[in-house]
Amino acid sequence: MKMITSLRTVLSMLLLLPLMAVAQIEGGKVYMFMNSGNAGRALAPGSSSNVTITNADNGSINQRWYVETAGSSFRVRSMGTGLYLRSSKATSQNWTLVDTPDANCTLDVVTVGDKLTLRAKGDVNESGYMHYGNGTGTIVCWSTNAPATLWTVTEIAMTEEEIAQNWEELKDVNFTTEEYN
């Protein structure tokens, strides 16, 4: 009887494994990035070219981020503005949004337990990770040892046609100097 109970326990644990798997991001998909250090808060464009977190709203286009494959790394683009997420590569300095991606827009995604961290590809600064800075209210570069540097992702179902239509609607809009949160 003890062996049957142990076998049931092992089988139950194996059945739960898919539920515990780390969410991986893939190019060509849309995601919502939730900040682990601030429950119920999602990555969103801030004012001007800054990036922040706001109360999570699954329907908000400003909290949807399109992921593009860039070699073995990724670029992350706001569905609300069309602008690319860009690392400053400098401790405590703001991440920004730019209309033309450069090297600091190509991001490495690393899993930490069941969470993700993001930083510019090739950045060797241990304080270069995407982090919500409570003191600044913006996304800044920081170390991996803080909960606000960890992110969970939820895929948002959008067809290729919906994504293309979104980019078309944003084509003639300039968000670099306006507030759009």
Pick out its properties.
single chain, 181 residues, alpha+beta, four-stranded antiparallel β-sheet, two-stranded antiparallel sheet, 2 helices, 12 strands, disordered N terminus
Structure description:
The protein is built from two helices and twelve strands, in the order H-E-E-E-E-E-E-E-E-E-E-E-E-H. It is of the alpha+beta class. The strands form five sheets. Strands 5-4-1-12 form a four-stranded antiparallel sheet, with no helix packed on it. A hairpin with a 5-residue loop joins strand 2 (41-45) and strand 3. The chain is globular and about 40 Å long.
Question: What is this structure, in a nutshell?
Answer:
The protein has helices at 2-20, 160-170; strands at 29-35, 41-45, 51-55, 65-70, 73-78, 84-86, 96-98, 107-112, 115-120, 129-133, 138-142, 151-156.
